[in-house]
Structures are given as structure tokens and as C-alpha cells.
Amino acid sequence: MPTPLELKLIHMAYRQAGLEEEHYRMILRNVAGVESAKLLSQTDLENVMAVLEDSGFRHAGKPADYWRSKVALRGSICGERMVRKIEDLAAGQKYDLAGLCRRVSAERVARVDKLMPREAYQLIEALKAICARQAKAGAGDQSSRESAESNRPGGGRATARPSPTDGPACQAAGIPAAESAGGSPEGRVEAGTASESIPETAGFRAKERGREGFAIER
User: Fold this and answer.
1) What is the pLDDT of residues 53-71, one digit of tens each?
2) Is the pTM value of this prediction over 0.85?
């Protein structure tokens, strides 16, 4: 069934060709077997337009034999609807459309409007598969990001790693919570440090406490 724009074009065409409505209706009956342009198929529409073009109509912005060429080349090249479908699917894709045309046509042509119907169909199906694959990959990436955010502690904020000394067992043993901050606990001396911080109650002799390189634990 013709679109509103196509119906408008048909009526403009027969008037531009200088035909009376009775002559126009006769063309519809003889060419397509219908009484109204609303009942035309796409093929019949092209046939009627070719007859109107032969009667004097000229499609603005198109070659003088535009519709007659479409009828003559029917079956050898794809139609405008297939061309538009391919261009719509290819919009925004990373693939070069000319390269895809060469691929499906075995390097015969690089233009969409020169593809044979079978080649155009193959390209449409290939582009549909590419779009579906990219949509699926995009949805998967988004789902992974959302999952990672939801699983991150504190609503996505990094949290401090619990210290081994923060547990109940360490607190019951009297280990100060300050030791969990990562500093050296009181009474611990690393190699080569002063020993004055070691309390006498540690039970070590002074000369042992001052021995260089000797780490003393309380």
C-alpha cells in the first residue's frame, strides 16, 4: 500500500503529465488492475509511475528516466526501501559500508544502490546481527558495572581493612585498639632503635635492652 507521500506524488504526476482523471483511472486499471491508487502494490506503483513518466511527468531532482529505469532494472538491483533499511542499520556502526558492500558482492560494487536484491538481503541480515550483538554486549557491560557498584562495601566507598587486633579476642587480651592503626605498639622496639621506651617491668636486664639490633617484645 502506498504511503501518503507516494499517493500525493501519483496525483501530482498525472496532472503534470497533462492527463485527465479518466485517462489516469484507465492507466490504473490497465497497468495494475485497480480503481484506486490506494490499492497499488510497490511494484504496481513503480509501473504506473513509469507510464506517467513516459507521458511527460518528470520527478524533480531525479533523472528523466528515473521510474522507467527502476522498472527496467527490477530484479537486477535492490529497491529504495532496501537501500534505506541498510543505511539506517549501518548508521553509527564502526564498519565501513562500502567495504561491507564489496564483501557481500564479491568485490563487484561498493555502493548500496548497486547491490542485487539477494546481496542487499544478506547485508541487511548481517547488519541486524551486528546491531543485536552490540546491544547485548552493551547491556552486559552495564549490568557488570551495576553489579560491581552494588557489591562494593559502603555503597561504593572503600573501607578500611580490619586489623587483626580489632577482634574481641585481642581486646579481651588487653591489646590496645591503637595498635590496629599500623604503628609500632608501645614497648616494641625495632632493630637499631632506642631502648628507653622499654619499661623496667619487662624483666630484661639493661644491657640486653641496649643491645643493638635486638628487637624486644613486652
Assistant:
1) 999 999 999 999 999 988 8
2) no
